[in-house]
Every structure is written in C-alpha cells, then in structure tokens.
Amino acid sequence: MKQKSLALLTLALAITTISFAQGGFHLGVKAGANIFKVDGAAIKDEFKFGYNLGAFAELNFSDKWGIQPEVMWNQTNFRTAENFNEIFPGGKSDVKGKLNYLSVPILLSFRPAKLITFQAGPQFGILLNNEESLFENGREAFKSGDFSVLGGVQLNLGSLKVGGRYVVGLANINDIDDREKWKNQGFQVYLGTRIL
Fold it and tell me: Across all residues in the chain, what is the average pLDDT?
C-alpha cells in the first residue's frame, strides 16, 4: 500500500508540474452525500446515507481535456445481515457499521461544453477506521485498502461545481476469509467551488 501511495503522489506531482507550465490549474473544495452499500453475503443489501468532504485540483491540458485528482473523506454505512453469525461464527448479526475512507480519485475529464464535464477514473481508498464491533473478540472484518472505478457528470456554473457519480468497488474488502466477497458501491452527489 505504501508503494501505491508513493507512486500516486509522484504521478500527481508530475501532472501538477506539467499543468502549471501550461496555465490550466485550479484548486477547490467540495462536500456532499454518499448513498453507498457494502455488496456481498452477510451484509444487508441496502443503500445507506453517508457523507463526503474533500478537495480537488483541475489540471487542464486543453479546453476539452484534463485530469482532476482529489483527496476525499468518504463514509460508507452498512448493517450486517440477520444470519451474519451463522456465516461467520462469533460475529454479530443485524448490527450497524461505519467505514470511513481517505479516498484519492484520479479522474479523466472531458468537457464537450463549458457547462458540462464527464469524468471517469480509478479511486484508491485507505480505511481510516476498522469496524471491530462485528465480532465478540474484536477481530477485524475489513481490509485496510480499497480500489474502485467511478464515472459521472459535473455541471460547471462559473466557479461552482455540482456533480453526481457512481462508484463500483473492484477490490474484495472482506478481511475475514476468501469465501465471501464484499465490495463498496453506490452513488455520490456533491457541491463544490473553486478557490484558486
């Protein structure tokens, strides 16, 4: 995970340097809502409301193309299924849980017009908390990292940004065993503004 983080930081610094040289650089902040779920056996199949908060950079290579790296705090709420303790002995059934991630999406941006931007790309996540209340013995249930892809659309109203995305987890975040695969997925809506 440290090597991935270092490679990501190096890539971001290289892109920033190129963008500064071309003059297409902006910074901003954003916040919004997550309607996410943890998809997989032993977790209730329901979307739950959470929050997102963070900062973004716009690195424009031309009038139409650019890259938007972000650093986000993302929250995913879930509830274990009523048979969780049957699938995972010692586990607690029908309990609420919360996962907080430090997420780093790196999005390719395409602006066919000034008003609208289409975005897609990978997202790397680092789990900031581990839900230990799922087991009587405090055993950890979730892996410390996540990898997703996302796609969405953003409206550009001057310096104001309004957007929506769908996030699909590709990595199995189940740290209990390899029998059941758990993946994050859901909708994200946000409001942001350029500050530079």
Answer: 88
